[in-house]
Write a sequence for this structure.
C-alpha cells in the first residue's frame, strides 16, 4: 500500500535533478566556463604551445575615405580559417603612441591567447582586426569614420565574416578604451559588445554623449566590460561604472588587485572579454543557444574586486555584486609621456 506514495516521492526528487543535468549538458562549453568569469587566467594562458593549431597574423592595407590615403592594419585569422565558414570580428585597439602591431608583437600576445582559448574549447574561433589608431597617423575626430566607413567595409568584403552587429565587437586598452566607447556605444547598430581595458584619456566622450538613451543601451548592448588594475590612477572607468549603475545599464567592472597600467591587466582583459562576449552570443554560428546564455543579466559572483550590474529592459536591478573596496583613481597627465596610455 505504501509503494505508490513512495514511488511518487522518488519521482518528485529525481525528475528535477535529471532535468537540471540535461540542461547543463546541453550548454555550450564556453557558456559553462563563462559562469566563473571574469577572473584571472591560468598560468600559461599567454604562452605559445607547440602541440596545438595556430592562427595567422597578416598585415593588410586598405583605402581610407577619412584620410584619403592607404592605411595599415593587422588581422588575426584563427586556426583552420576557411571561406566556407563565416566568423565574428573583434576590432581591437592599442594604447596611446602605439600601433597596429602592439597586440601581436608589442607585448599583447593576442594571437597566442586566442590560439589557446580555441584549443581548450573555451571559445569558438573568431577574427581580430587591429587598426592603427595612433594620433600621429589619424586624428581622433577621423578615427570613427575610418573604422566605420573604410576598415569595416574592407574586412566585410575581403574576408568570410558576419556583417551584423551581433557578430561584431570593439575593445581597446588605455587610450584605445575611450576610443572603443566612442565608436561602439554610439553605434550600437554596428556593435553589440564593447570593452575598455584601463580606459582613459582626453579623447573620452562624456557619458551624456555615450549613453544619450539609456533605455536603448539597456536593450541593445550585449556586453559592456570594464577592467582596470587597482594600482592604476585613471578615474574614467569609475565614472562609466557609476553612470551605468545610476541609469540601470548592465555592465561588468573588473578590478584586478595590485596591478597597474600594463599588459598584466590588458592581456587578462582580452582573455576575459573574448569568453564573456562569446557567452553572450558573439560566436553564435547558427547553433541554438541554451536558456542560460539567453539571459541578458548574467551575474558573476565570488570574484574579488568585481562589480556586475544587471537590469532588465525596464531598468529593474536583477543583480548587484560589489566585492571589495573600490579604488579611487586620478587622471593621468599626458604631458608625462607615459607609454601605453
Amino acid at each position: 500500500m505504501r509503494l505508490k506514495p513512495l514511488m511518487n516521492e522518488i519521482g518528485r526528487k529525481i525528475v528535477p535533478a535529471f532535468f537540471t543535468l540535461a540542461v547543463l549538458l546541453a550548454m555550450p562549453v564556453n557558456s559553462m566556463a563563462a559562469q566563473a568569469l571574469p577572473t584571472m587566467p591560468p598560468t600559461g594562458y599567454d604562452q605559445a604551445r607547440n602541440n596545438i593549431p595556430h592562427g595567422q597574423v597578416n598585415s593588410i592595407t586598405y583605402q581610407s575615405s577619412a584620410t584619403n590615403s592607404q592605411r595599415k592594419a593587422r588581422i588575426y585569422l584563427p586556426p583552420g580559417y576557411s571561406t566556407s565558414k563565416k566568423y565574428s570580428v573583434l576590432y581591437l585597439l592599442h594604447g596611446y603612441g602605439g600601433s597596429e602591431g602592439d597586440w601581436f608583437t608589442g607585448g599583447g600576445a593576442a594571437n597566442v591567447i586566442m590560439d589557446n582559448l580555441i584549443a581548450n574549447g573555451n571559445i569558438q574561433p573568431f577574427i581580430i582586426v587591429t587598426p592603427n589608431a595612433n594620433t600621429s597617423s589619424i586624428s581622433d575626430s577621423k578615427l570613427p569614420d575610418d573604422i566605420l566607413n573604410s576598415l569595416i567595409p574592407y574586412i566585410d568584403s575581403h574576408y568570410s565574416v558576419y556583417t551584423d552587429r551581433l557578430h561584431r565587437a570593439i575593445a581597446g586598452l588605455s587610450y584605445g578604451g575611450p576610443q572603443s566607447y566612442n565608436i561602439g556605444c554610439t553605434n550600437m547598430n554596428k556593435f553589440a559588445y564593447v570593452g575598455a581595458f584601463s580606459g582613459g584619456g582626453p579623447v573620452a566622450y562624456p557619458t551624456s554623449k555615450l549613453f544619450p538613451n539609456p533605455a536603448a543601451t539597456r536593450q541593445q548592448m550585449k556586453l559592456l566590460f570594464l577592467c582596470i588594475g587597482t594600482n592604476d590612477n585613471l578615474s574614467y572607468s569609475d565614472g562609466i561604472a557609476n553612470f551605468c549603475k545610476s541609469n540601470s545599464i548592465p555592465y561588468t567592472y573588473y578590478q584586478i588587485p595590485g596591478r597597474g597600467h600594463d599588459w598584466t591587466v590588458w592581456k587578462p582583459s582580452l582573455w576575459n572579454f573574448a569568453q564573456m562576449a562569446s557567452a553572450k552570443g558573439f560566436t553564435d554560428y547558427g547553433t541554438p543557444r541554451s536558456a542560460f546564455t539567453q539571459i541578458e543579466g548574467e551575474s558573476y559572483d565570488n570574484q574579488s574586486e568585481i562589480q556586475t550590474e544587471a537590469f532588465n529592459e525596464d531598468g529593474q536591478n536583477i543583480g548587484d555584486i560589489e566585492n571589495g573596496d573600490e579604488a579611487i583613481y586620478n587622471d593621468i597627465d599626458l604631458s608625462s609621456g607615459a607609454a601605453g596610455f
Summary: The beta strands are 56-64, 69-77, 89-93, 127-131, 168-173, 193-197, 223-229, 251-256, 306-311, 317-322. The chain has a mean pLDDT of 83.
